[in-house]
């Protein structure tokens, strides 16, 4: 809803947080969506999922995601967001509450459930606040 009235220029202007544009923030969410989808698939299949970026900090991972996605078009990034979001909904619906909350060795005894929240609505709130703050300051 926050993004609907924005122009392409507003969506692609850097400086929202660091050098990132709104598009880059969405691409960042997409990258974490893809990670979550891999986790949900592994949970459904009952297989271990090794950490794809062992030893890297969250900041380093986010920078890697930025570098991988910064040159993609806005249309491509938005389409991927809608696609991965729908895939997450389907994947979560395919898991039972028991599967979502089952302790997993590859999550050091944690379950995949908190990762669903952390990589969807909690993550959206975090970036929506950043974007809204930037939009408010750019309208001053």
Termini separation: 21 Å
**How much is the average pLDDT?**
95
Q: Structurally, how many domains make up the residues? A: 1
CATH fold topology = Four Helix Bundle (Hemerythrin (Met), subunit A)
State which percent range the strand residues make up.
Answer: under 5%
| CATH homologous superfamily (4th level) name | dinb family like domain
* Helix percent band: 55-70%
Q: Choose one word for the global shape.
A: elongated
Low-confidence stretches: none
How many strands appear in the DSSP assignment?
A: 0
Task: Output the CATH class name.
Answer: Mainly Alpha
Tally of contiguous helical segments: 7
Major pleated sheet: none
Order of helices and strands: HHHHHHH
Q: From the alpha-carbon coordinates, what is the Rg to the nearest angstrom?
A: 16 Å
Under the CATH scheme, which architecture would be assigned? Up-down Bundle
* Classification by helices and strands: mainly alpha
Describe this structure in words.
The chain has helices at 8-12, 22-45, 58-69, 74-93, 97-101, 113-118, 121-138. The protein is an all-alpha fold. The longest helix has 24 residues, at 22-45. The model has no long low-confidence stretch (mean pLDDT 95).
């Amino acid at each position: 809803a926050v993004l609907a009235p924005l122009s392409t220029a507003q969506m692609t202007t850097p400086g929202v947080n660091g050098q990132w544009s709104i598009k880059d923030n969405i691409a960042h969410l997409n990258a974490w969506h893809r990670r979550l989808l891999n986790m949900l698939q592994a949970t459904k299949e009952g297989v271990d999922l090794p950490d794809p970026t062992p030893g890297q900090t969250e900041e380093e991972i986010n920078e890697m995601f930025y570098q991988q996605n910064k040159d993609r078009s806005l249309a491509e990034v938005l389409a991927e967001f809608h696609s991965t979001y729908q895939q997450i909904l389907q994947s979560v619906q395919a898991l039972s509450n028991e599967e979502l909350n089952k302790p997993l060795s590859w999550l050091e005894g944690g379950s995949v459930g908190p990762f669903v929240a952390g990589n969807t609505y909690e993550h959206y709130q975090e970036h929506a606040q950043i974007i809204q703050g930037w939009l408010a300051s750019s309208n001053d």
